[in-house]
Amino acid sequence: MRPRIALNIKCVNNEVIKEEKLFEAKSELLLWSNPVHKRVSVLIHGDHEPFCESLVIVRYIDKTWSSGPSTLPSNPKERAVPRFWAAYLDEKICVSG
User: Fold this and answer.
1) What is the Cα–Cα distance from 56 to 5, expressed in whole angstroms?
2) Which of 13, 21, 27, 85 is buried deepest, with most CB atoms within 10 A?
3) Distance CA 68, CA 63 (A)
4) Distance, CA of 61 to chain centre
């Protein structure tokens, strides 16, 4: 969800391709675009190699599409709050999922 939110903040038109069977056989596109981890999130942008892992993708989006608001505040203290909640949710989802 993080990359989708970041693309939305930056008003970037994009196409979402859902991996329907995450816990079964992986699609050829997913295996090609993320051969190391073989999981989502993946961003395919133009002729670049695919980007994997949601935090890496969000940072790439923030730097590539510099117009519009930043995905995180510039003030370090203000940046800490959304990072805390992201880490909290990651932990809760991983523990309960």
Assistant:
1) 14
2) 27
3) 11
4) 9
Provide the 10 A C-beta neighbour count for residue 51: 21
Cα 8 to the center of its chain, rounded Å:
12
Rounded to the nearest 10°, the torsion over CA 73, 74, 76, 80 is 20
List 43's β-bridge partners, or say none: 51
What is the rounded distance in angstroms from the CA atom of residue 30 to the CA atom of residue 16?
Answer: 13
Q: Lowest mean pLDDT: which of 25-29, 61-65, 81-85, 89-93?
A: 89-93
Q: 51-79: per-residue pLDDT in tens? A: 888 888 888 999 999 877 888 888 999 98
How far is Cα 78 from Cα 70, in angstroms, rounded to an integer?
12
- Residue listed under structure tokens 């959304």: 82
What phi, psi does 66 have (nearest 5°)?
-75, -15
